[in-house]
Amino acid sequence: MAEHEHVPHVRVAVIGSGFGGLGAAVRLRREGVTDFVVLERASGVGGTWRDNSYPGCACDVPSHLYSFSFAPNPDWPRTFSGQEHIRAYLEHVTDVFGLRPHLRFDSEVKLMTWDDEKLHWAIETSSGPLTADVVVSATGPLSDPKLPAVPGLDGFPGRIFHSARWDQDLDLRGKRVAVIGTGASAIQIIPEIQPVVGRLTVFQRTPPWVMPRVDRDISGLERRLHRALPFTTQLRRGFLWGIRELQVQAFTKHPDELGLIERMARRNIARAVKDPALRAKLTPDYRIGCKRILLSNSYYPALTRPNVEVVASGLSEVRGSTLIAADGTETEADVIVFGTGFHVTDLPIAERVVGAGGRTLARAWSGGMRALRGATAAGFPNWMTIIGPNTGLGNSSMILMIESQLNYMADFLRQLDVLGGRVALDARPAAVDAWNHKVQERMKRTVWNTGGCTSWYLDASGRNTTIWPGTTTEFRSATRRVDLEEYEVVRAPRTSRQGERPAGTRTEARA
Asked: Is this structure's pTM higher than 0.85?
């Protein structure tokens, strides 16, 4: 680009338009900040609820809890709503809060580089460059599908796709389909496609614990009541939240208390699966809760059908149309569907964030993701993330955590205003270390660390860098305000007499 060309500048650049990005946009407007853009690589809002359109896609958190507190929806059609209803809700939020003028679709972020002299972020996108004082990364951990490196996969003659990139043009009727994985997406897909496919082979490395899904239509009377008396919607949400808050101690402090839930889950298997050999394949050998507890009324029954085979092993090799499991089982397939999760602990966006001194976020997190209060990273001034390290939940709604992080974002911007001038806040390494030490110490006794399983919650070194080891109330309290003592203040430098500009000056922040 020629030097004279104008590069647009904004106060805040939000990356992503899922729940985190749209929530950030609403909060910015409510804080009186209108000089911002939401950069979205796709052509519509919705994030994971736009990308995941596979058969049976739905949320495993009740609808009235899986929605913004500031945008209650009295018209949820079911207690657990499907993908199409959640995406429609996000479109509604976009319109009601006037976010469309801020959206920049088809604008994938290629690189974000911190300028130590100008104290702003230079952002390269597929639709052109811009700069921003503050970056709020809301790309989410469930946005980049993970495909395993299976020998021979590139020689498979049929169709291959990930559950989050469902091939809508493909007719599965009569085909031999292999589903790789038995996670949250797979257990929704399998019952939907089983009646139409010719043969369905499920490759299961580790069986999940599956509980009944207490789902039903929300009656017209209930919806009319919620519309007429909005406080009833809040009461319903509060009840759903309270139940889950009471459950947290069993996951975080007393995993042995989950024994009753585990016995219920075993009975759920026994009721649906009468074949002892299949039941043995489907029964986990780890404490319930170690992996996310899945909800379905149709998964186990689908696996008992004559056209379904469960291979209790992962896919290890592909030879033409023959799929070979790690235990040597061979099966023929026309289609392979990967339900193998996402890049959660090795976020691809981290390669594209270049902080102070030219260090990438990926390099900074090479030993494991870590962020102060799940939001800011040392060496990356005026950069924060929504749904950052150790902010995930194992039993409740992520919207609660997102809204807590939005509180932190809002106060972060207020502190910049109070400090005045061209200024940035950079998390102190000692503060990041102290926060993460406290989180990891609490993590030691949780079911996610003691339950005897390997899950996507853990990074390559076995450290849990995804889950919050406490209640949502505790996290809300921890992120209510920015503690300036946890940050260094980076101020714009003065130009020397020779016209040279030294690096920005750093001082310790004071409350």
From this structure: yes
